Amino acid sequence: MRLLLIEDDDRIAGPLTEGLGRYGFTVDRARTGAAGLADTADTPDLVLLDLGLPDMDGLDVCRSLRARSAIPIIMITARGEEADRVAGLELGADDYMAKPFGVRELVARIRAVTRRTGALPAAPAGPDATAIPAVAPAPQQLGLLQIDRRTRQVRVGGREVALSPREFDLLAYLAQDPGAVHSRQQIMDAVWDPHFFGPTKTLDAHVAALRRKLGDPGWVTTARGVGFRLTVPGDPPPEAVR
Description:
Structural class: alpha/beta
Strand order of the largest sheet: 2-1-3-4-5
Helix content: 25-40%
Shape: elongated
Largest sheet: 5 strands, parallel
Number of strands: 12
CATH topology of the largest domain: Rossmann fold
């Protein structure tokens, strides 16, 4: 699997490239945002993107990449604030890691992202597998919301909504049983990975981004102390969780 690392700091890029190489990854490196955008013309399997680049903000690089490609993107940055994570995820990043982090954690994130985005073959389904159907005979319609799992397209009132791969997986998972409450751990296991190492705030950032993109926070409601559910705004509220 070939990765593109967009990172200007040799002290980080060198050990990271070496460490990922031990896990069987081939790592190409770009030191600037412009060079990284040029290198993606060769279509790497995944991009590791630093935000603090010398020539441009990594968020702008992410925006440009996502405008022309669905290539998986993991942001790796010293910016750990929630606002930065939300901004990165809303622009289309599939995951966000705050420095410092270990190579083993990064490898786990890479494998999880590639499984979710289809860059690697999916593991055989087992008794604990929580499947988001890869193929659906027809789009699912929930009020004004339409979810087409075959094409991975979402529309609200006929307007197409651009979601990142992870946001789509989150929406599709909740839509499997509209109105049902899914615990935070159930969602993390299904949409991320049972061995996900990151903070659960990653889920909150994705939920916030999904609410904004769907245009009404009522689409994804919170069951306090439990998790989240997908609801149709304007429908009678479900019974309180006891």
